[in-house]
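I'll show a sample.
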Amino acid sequence: MIGHQAEKLEELVASNSHNKSKKTRFIAITSGKGGVGKSTISSNLAYVLSQSGLNVGIFDADIGLANLDVMFNVKIKKNILHVLKGEATVSDILIPITRNLILIPGESGDEILKYADAALFKRFMEEAQVLDKLDVMIIDTGAGIGEHIQMFLNAADDVIVVTVPDPAAITDAYATIKTVALLRNDIGLIMNQVKNEKEAEAVFEKIRKVALANIGEKLDLQLMGKINSDVKVSSSIKRRALFSVSYPNSQPHTDITAIASKIASRLERNMLVSPNESGLTGLFKRLMEHF
C-alpha cells in the first residue's frame, strides 16, 4: 500500500518539475541523547546562516520534544501534518523569524507519509513552491536512532551529530555515528559545552579513533566546530532568545559563526535545478524514496 502510494507521489513530483529554482541543501542536526543543546545549535545556526544573506528554512522534526518555538519565542498552532490532512495551507503554518529565515513546524516521517495521499500531496506541492527558493534547510531531528529519525538522516545532504564532553553523551554520540555510518560515510560532529578548542579536539579524536577502529577506514568523520560552555547561552534560553542575537560579541556566537561559514562554503549557490530538488517538495521527495 505504502509502496504503491509512494510510486504515485513520485509521478506527481516528476510532473511538477518543469520550472527552475535553487537547489536546497538539507542539513540534518541530530544527537545520541537529549539535553546536549541540539535545538539551541540548530536555531542559532539557522539564524546566523540567514544573516549571511542565505534563504534558510528550519524544519522542526524533533517530535515529542519540539521546542524550536521556545527557541524563537513564537507560538505554533498547526504543523505540516495539518497541511497534509487538508486542515491548513503551507502558508498557514510557516512562521517568519527574520527576513531570510522561516520556521516550518514538522512531524515525524512516518506520520507525514501516512497522510500523504496523491490528491493532498498534489495540492501540497503546489503550495510548497513558496519555499523553492531556500538555499538551505536545517532539519532539527529527534535524539536517538529511531526509524523515523533515520528517514530524515537518509534524506539529508549533510548529517551533523551534536554531543558534549560527558561520558554518557559521548557513548550515545558514538552509537548514533555507528548507525548513521550504515547510511553514509561522511558525518559531521559539533562539540558543545566545551572549555576550549583543545578539549573539543581531544574528545573528537577519541571518538574518531574508536569509530575508525570499529566502523572502518571509509568513515569520514569531521569536526565541524565547537561551542564554548558559557552562562550566556543558558541565560538566553531562559529568556526565549537566541544567544547569537542577545550576545553577538560572545564566544559561543563566534563559534557558531565559524560553523556557519564551513557550511556556507559547501553550498552550491545559485545552481538552477528542478523544483523536486528544492524546498519542502525536495525534502518530501527524498523521504518518499525510502518507502
The chain has one domain: 2-288. Residues 2-288 form a domain with the Rossmann fold fold (CATH 3.40.50.300).
